[in-house]
Design goal:
The protein has ten helices and seven strands. The chain has about 270 residues and is α/β, with parallel strands linked by helices.
Length: about 270
C-alpha cells in the first residue's frame, strides 16, 4: 500500500508509540486523522503544533456515542478510510495499582477491558463502512505479549490480569475482522513486548521497579533491551505494506516470550 494521500486514522497519537506511528505514516505521505480526549488538553496542543494541517477530532473512544460521532465527522471530511491503526489501551501495572480488590481499584479491571479491548471494537465497527468504501484498506491492531505470558514470571509486576485478558481478546477480534473484511480489508496485529514508554523505561511502573527487577526483565528478553517507539512504527508500516498478509500476528518483543528457557546441549544418545 502506497500511503501517499491515503486517509489514515491513528489512535493514541498523543503519546509514546502512537506518536511515533503518526510521525512515520505522515512521513510516508499519509493524511492523518488523530482523535484526542480532553483528559489531556496539553497533548492536544502538542498534536496541533506537530501535526499542523492534519485532522484532529475530539473523541472519547470508550463511549459508543462519541465513537459514532467521530465516524460521522470523518465521513463528512473524507470519502473513505484507507487505514485504521487501532492503538488504544489502559494497562494497570500490579507494581503501581496492586490488587484489584483494593477499594480504590474496584473499577480498574473494567477500565482496562473497556479501553484496551472494547474501544478497539467500537472504533472498528463504526469505521468499517468507511474502510469498505476504499478499494483496498488495512487495519493494524496493537496488542501486548501480556496476552501470551499473563501475570507470570518477571512480567508479573507489569501485566495485570485484566490487561492480559483484554490483550488475549484482541487476537480473536483480529481473526474475526480479517474474515469479515476480506478480500478488500486486511487486518493484522502487532504484538509488542517491553517498550520505552510502554511497560518499559519512561513509565511509572518501570521507575517503581528495583534495579534487580529491571535487570531480570532485560535478561528475560533475548535481545537484552527494551524496544523503541520508532521500531514499533516501522513494524506498523511493514504490516500496511504486506499485501498478502491478513489475520496474522507479528510479535515484536525482542524475544521476551522465548526468554527464560535455555537450549541444552545435545545429549550423546544411546546405541541402537
Amino acid at each position: 500500500m502506497n500511503l501517499s494521500e491515503k486517509n489514515v486514522l491513528v489512535l493514541g497519537a498523543s503519546r509514546g508509540i502512537g506518536r511515533a506511528i503518526a510521525r512515520r505514516l505522515a512521513a510516508a505521505g499519509a493524511r492523518l486523522i488523530l482523535p484526542w480526549i480532553d483528559d489531556w488538553p496539553e497533548a492536544a496542543a502538542e498534536l496541533r503544533q506537530e501535526f499542523a494541517g492534519q485532522l484532529l477530532l475530539k473523541s472519547d473512544l470508550r463511549e459508543p456515542d462519541s465513537v459514532a460521532a467521530l465516524a460521522r465527522q470523518i465521513a463528512e471530511r473524507v470519502p473513505c478510510l484507507h487505514v485504521l491503526v487501532n492503538n488504544i489501551e489502559r494497562g494497570g501495572m500490579p507494581v503501581v495499582h496492586g490488587s484489584y480488590f483494593r477499594p480504590e481499584n474496584r473499577s480498574q479491571w473494567q477500565l482496562e477491558l473497556e479501553t484496551t479491548l472494547h474501544a478497539k471494537q467500537l472504533v472498528f465497527e463504526q469505521c468499517l463502512p468507511l474502510l469498505r468504501r476504499a478499494e483496498q484498506a488495512a487495519v493494524v491492531n496493537i496488542s501486548s505479549v501480556a496476552a501470551v505470558v499473563g501475570r507470570s514470571g518477571p512480567a508479573g509486576l507489569l501485566f495485570s490480569d485484566g490487561y492480559s485478558a483484554a490483550n488475549r481478546g484482541i487476537n480473536s477480534l483480529t481473526e474475526t475482522w480479517a474474515r469479515l473484511g476480506a478480500p478488500s480489508i486486511r487486518v493484522n496485529e502487532l504484538m509488542l513486548g517491553l517498550f520505552e514508554q510502554r511497560h518499559g523505561p519512561g513509565t511509572r511502573g518501570w521507575s517503581l521497579l528495583h534495579a534487580a527487577e529491571q535487570e531480570r526483565l532485560l535478561r528475560h528478553t533475548l535481545l537484552q533491551r527494551t524496544g523503541k517507539a520508532e521500531e514499533a512504527a516501522e513494524a506498523v508500516l511493514f504490516l500496511l505494506q504486506a499485501e498478502f498478509m491478513t489475520g496474522a500476528v507479528l510479535r515484536l518483543d525482542g524475544g521476551f516470550v522465548l526468554g527464560g528457557d535455555d537450549v541444552p546441549e545435545m545429549p550423546e544418545g544411546q546405541p541402537l
